[in-house]
Every structure is written in C-alpha cells, then in structure tokens.
Amino acid sequence: MEDLKTLKGEVDSIIFKSEDTGFCVLMLNCDNDLITVVGEMGDVEEGEDLVVTGEFTSHQKFGEQFKVHIFERSLPTTSAAIQRYLASGAISGIGPVLAKKLVNKFGDDTLDIIENTPDRLTEIDGITVKKAEKISQEFKTTFAARSLMSYLNKFEIETSYGIKAWKRWGNTAEQIIKSNPYVLCIQGVDLSFSRADAVAAKSDIPADSECRIKAGITYILRQNADQGHTCLPLDSLVKTAVSYLDVDEKLIKKVIEDETEEENLYYYDKHGRRFVMLADFYKAEDYIARRLAIMRQISYDNKIDFSEVIDLEEENNGIQYEKIQREAINLALSKGFLVLTGGPGTGKTTTLNAIISLYQQQGLNVMICAPTGRAAKRLSDLTGFDAKTIHRLLEVKHTSGDTLAFIHDENNLLDCDALIIDEMSMVDSCLFEAVLRAISVTCKLVLVGDSDQLPSVGAGNVLKDIIDSGVMSVVTLKEIFRQAQESEIVMNAHKIVNGEHIDLASKDKDFFFMQRLEYGELQDLVVELCKTRLPKAYDYSPIDDIQVLSPTRKGPAGTVELNKRLQQELNPPAAGKSEVKTPVYTFRKGDKVMQTKNDYEILWKKYITEDKTESGAGIFNGDIGIIIAVNKILKTVTIDFEGRIAVYDKQMLDNLELAYAITVHKSQGSEFDVVILTVFGGFDKLYYRNLLYTAVTRAKRMLIIVGSKKRVDFMIDNNKRTLRYTALKNMLMELVEGDDSGQQTLDI
Ligand SMILES: Nc1ncnc2c1ncn2[C@@H]1O[C@H](COP(=O)(O)OP(=O)(O)OP(=O)(O)O)[C@@H](O)[C@H]1O
C-alpha cells in the first residue's frame, strides 16, 4: 500500500462488469492515455469521470493494470461525455438516439435539466410530460445508488456491501446508513461490527449511543450463535458487552430490557438463571417445542400393535428383527413420531428400511431427506429411494436481503404423509423449524441420527435436546450386529465413544495406525499414501476414494498446509492448466475443492442428456467438487459438484477451499471409502472424543490414523462435550410437564 497513486480520467469503455459484486475491468482515458483499471466500482458507466486511488500491478499476461482501492465519481460535464454516458444506457428510457437529441438541444446543461427541471425535456419531440418525469426519476434513483457507493467508498467499504444495502433500502439507503451505520451489520448485508464501528466513529456517533449498544449486543449473540449457542446467560452477555463496548453496565442492561420489549430479543429462564435469545432462535426453538408437544399429544392413545405386519415384513425380507428394532418399527407406525438413534452397525438403516416399506404398504406418501448432498446420496444408496437434501426438499426461495426462506412452509405444505430425516445430528434449530412448518401436524416424522457425532454447524442441539428431554419417543440401538463386528472401524468407534483406548498395533483389518512424530515425516507419509501406496495396492483413486481429514486447519498437520502439499503432488502446475490465485490458495484446473458456506444464490446447471439440462440455485457448506475450467481474464472458476456445474467469480472464491484435506467438522454427514486422519500436535481443545469418533465413522472401507499414539489416547480421554446453550430441551419439558401420555424412551 506504500505506492498508492491517484488517477483522474473518463471511462472510455467497460470490458467486464459483475452485477452482483460490482467488480469491473475498464479502460480509463487519462489525458489520452488508456489505462486498464480493475476493482469494485459498482454501476460505473462509459463517459463518466472517475478519480481512482490504488496501485499499478503487473499481470503476467495482460501487462500493467491499475488496481483500485478507493474511487470517486462525478457526472460527466462536457457535452460529448454526457452524450456517451447517456447513450451507454445508464438511465433507462434513454438510448443513443435520444441521447444525441438531448445533448444537441441542452448541451452541457443536459444532466442538470434532467434532474431539476424535467418539464423542459418535453421541448424534444416525442417526450411527453409523463416520460419526462419518468426519466428524471430514473436519473435520481441511479444517482442515489452512485452516491451511496461513493459514500461507503470513503470508508473503504467495498461496493458489494453497497449493492446489498441498496437492494435492501433502495433510494433511502444512504440516509439510513448515515444516521445509523450499524444497520450495515444486519443479516443480509453482513458488514462486521468493527468496520461499522469505524464508520460510526468517523461520523461522530458517540460510543454510548443506543444504536451502537444494540448492534454490539446483537453482534455478541450472533458470534456465539456461530459457535452453536441459541442463547446466552444474561450475566455473561452483560459482562462481555461491558468489556467489548467499554460502556456502563446499567446502559447495557437497559438496552437489553428495551430490546426484549421490542421483541428483538427474548428472555428465557431455566434452572433459576436468565438467558437471552435472539428473536429468530427463540421463535425457532419455541415453535419446535410446541409442534413436537402437539405431535406427542395427537398420538397419545395410539398404542396399536403392528406385530402381524412386522412378522410379514420379516418373512418378505428373510430377516428377523431384534426386539428393539420391532419396538422402533411399531412406534414409528403407531405414534407417528420417532427418534431412531445409535452408533455404527447397530441396525438403524435396516430398521429404517422396514419403516419406509411399511409406511408405503399403508399407502402413505413417504419423503426422505438429509442435511447435506453427500448424506442424501448415501441415504439414496442405502434405501433405494430418492433422498433429497432438506434445502432441495423445501425449495429455497429468494428474498430481498438474502435471508433464507423456503417455497414450502405453512401456506404451502409438502405433499407427504411421512417424512424421514437422516443425519439429524447435523440439523440446526432454524432448519428444523422450517421443516416442521412445511409438514402437516399429522405427517409422521422419523428422525435418524447418532447424537454422539459432532453437533450441527448452525446454532442449536436439536437431536440431543429432543432425546435428553425424555418426553418424546426415542429408540436407542446399542447392540452391534455380527456383520458389523467384522469391522475394526465399527468396533473401535464404539470403544472410542465409550472412552476405551484402542489397540493401535493391529494391522490386518480396516483400521491402521502409523506413528509419525515429526511434521515433515507426517506430511510425506500422507502424500505417499494418497499418491502411490493406496492407489497401487488397492486401486483407490486419490481424488475420488481417499479423503484426508484433520481436526484443524492450522499448522503443519492442518488442512491448509496438507492441501498445498497434496495439490503440488496430485495436481501440479502444467502447461495448459490455467490457475487463479487467492490470498490463501491457488486454484487450478483439476483441483478438488469444497464450498465452505451455504450460498443459496449460486446458479448451477446439470446436464441430464446432451441437449437436456436442469438448472437450480444453491451450493452448500461442505459440497465437494472438481474444477473443470479456469478463466484467467475474468478470474472465474467452473466447478463440477457431482454433476451440478457452477461458475464462481472472484468474490465467490473466498468461500472455496482446496479439499484434498478437509477438517473433521466439514466432513460431517459424508462417508469416504478411505479416510486418512492426522492426529498430531495442535491445540488441546480441538482434540476431543466426539471429534475422533466423528472422524473414524466417516470411513467405509479403510481408516488410517497418522500421527501420535499419545495424542489419540488424549482425544479419547478428553470427553469435553462441547457445551451448547440452548432452550429446546427445557421448553419441551415445560410444555409436557405433568402430561403422562406414556411416551417411551427405550434404551436397551
Ligand atoms: N435384525 C437383523 N438381523 C441380522 N442382521 C441385521 C439385522 N439388523 C441389521 N443387520 C445387519 O447389521 C449390519 C448393520 O446394520 P445397519 O447397516 O442397518 O446399521 P446402521 O446402524 O445403519 O449402520 P451405519 O450407521 O454404520 O450405516 C448390516 O450388515 C445389517 O444387514
């Protein structure tokens, strides 16, 4: 940033412009010198005057470019520039012909007349009073957008935030932001609190102003929601807010009180302690609790015995269900609500298949879904039914402000009589609320999952809260079936979850341990296994079959470093393989990549046959794909996400990572033929039992742990279950308190 320069000139031509991000490539005419200028400059048009501050950078292929950090724009002043500006289509309703007529008539005053005395436009043939008004209005709207971008740009806030604010508040955006810059932190615009705080400080908004405290409290609650909490104890929230905002405790308490009166925040009291909840989480957990309580009540008397149909199902399938499996099937048929839980190999899928089959025999329309694409695919493979992701089932609806809404809700229910959700441990409170809103109260619901897996990425602990409430029908399968006992992956997973140390010396089955106590050696071994040993010995594909997992992103055994090594070995640079660089990674054609954030707007296309395509929107956190093309000029990357083809621009690449190695958290809900897990070094708090259990249960055929035996034992001993503050369990218990409807929690 030391060599910042300022250029002034007129926009000669626009080479590329992204409507979503505001990223532009344009030619700027600076005293008849044409300079390539790149950066986020929003809806800039040909003919405009620009003042850009930035630096010259050298591009391997395109030569010298000027990279913009800050830009200011002013409207063109000369007749020629005004004509070019209007002819470019900047103001809708004016094309090249009308632009010429206007400038011929009004010369340098054209824009002034359009803005301030539009009735004079009627002096031109064909412009009615109505059209003149419309043109003037259009000009003012466009001008307001430009003014907003320039205003934000003064604080070095990127145009992409301006575009989101503009979409949200339109013409009034600038005014709203000037009086309260913290509105930029709302969901959908998503500027960080500290950046909005910097704008406020420069705009002389006092540190103890109500708008700052409100935004600060929301920020603390949202940050904690990102860690999984749907609520926070009032005392901790106040303490954190006092130190973070450096504001008097009384003021903080008063703002929280006011916010609860406005219903932006809610209090929830449990075990004599007061908690504070953001409105969306309060409403989600409250709704879930009420709906489940109703479902429980509806099936209060349904104690029908389905033994005969279960006998028949056994006969048809040549299988004898265990007593506990029969109980689960009977509950699913009679009660209409069931949580089916248990570790690997305990018979969940077998039980589920019987439930689905019997539902269908009863003429019920059954739908099955899972939270991620990979989990849905696995479920389809195991059950033979077409399982969808929850997002696809509910169908994402686009709303202003980028908030998530679904086409299926209480006004447009899903046409199903029974819904099965697998990998329920990954479903957060808001998503489960959306599911319940989209099904009728009489729709049967079976939730399948393993509550010992890591909890959902989003806030809430739904599966565990429902189980721990003790008031809903839950069947826990504990016995490991004989076939599954053959697998050391399965047996060791159960030992891990029970806190038993495992035998790492065994070498003859599917579970291997390779000790490496030096980072370089550890990386070398991971590379060697992926690149040569496993492909040679077992014909596993390094990209499709093998997945490297690590508890952490950081450090030599973390995913960032491992990805760089693996990329270098598995997909090195080569002539004809174009690439694009981001601050963390270089992305190259052929790379295995992963989306790291839910993005409901990314468009994709799927080729069904050569000339038939299906299209849709949404690439989600954890989706893994392969880069099939890189456009170096536009800095776009085309990715094949298991058949869905999506094009990413520069900004979207921020949410993309190399995926030769991924964190255990990101692997939730997926299974891979071979998992190589690194367990060495790193922060103690990332090395705990449930994380190891989740990693081990991702492997279908082979698991190889590379690292330190001491660290593996430490993980098994560290039973710090991540504490989550949530309200659902208590809400449910309160609602059914004293109601003895005979729900069963079977734990055999
Ligand atoms: N009643 C039964 N009698 C005999 N074998 C059974 C029975 N139930 C399940 N099995 C077998 O036990 C093994 C594990 O069952 P299943 O795949 O249903 O478990 P799961 O809990 O879904 O496991 P995972 O979570 O690992 O997929 C399978 O081989 C299955 O065929």
TrEMBL record:
Annotated catalysed reactions: ATP + H2O = ADP + phosphate + H(+)
SMART domains, sorted: AAA
Residue numbers binding ATP: G345, T346, G347, K348, T349
Any one Gene Ontology BP term: DNA recombination
Enzyme Commission number(s) from the entry: 5.6.2.3
Record flagged with keyword ATP-binding: yes
InterPro entries the UniProt entry points to: AAA+_ATPase (IPR003593), Coronavir_polyprotein_1ab (IPR050534), P-loop_NTPase (IPR027417), RecD2 (IPR006345), RecD2-like_HHH (IPR029493), RecD2_N_OB (IPR055446), RecD2_SH13 (IPR041451), RuvA_2-like (IPR010994)
Statement: the UniProt record of this protein carries the keyword Oxidoreductase: no
GO cellular component: exodeoxyribonuclease V complex
Residue ranges constituting the AAA+ ATPase domain according to the UniProt record: 334-485
Domain of life of the organism encoding this protein: Bacteria
Gene3D superfamilies in alphabetical order: 1.10.10.2220, 2.30.30.940, 5' to 3' exonuclease, C-terminal subdomain, P-loop containing nucleotide triphosphate hydrolases
Keywords attached to this entry: ATP-binding, DNA-binding, Helicase, Hydrolase, Isomerase, Nucleotide-binding
Pfam families: AAA_30, HHH_5, HHH_RecD2, OB_YrrC, SH3_13, UvrD_C_2
Family as reported in the entry's similarity comment: Belongs to the RecD family. RecD2 subfamily.
NCBIfam families reported in the protein's UniProt record: recD_rel
Protein name in the entry: ATP-dependent RecD2 DNA helicase
Protein species of origin: Hominimerdicola aceti
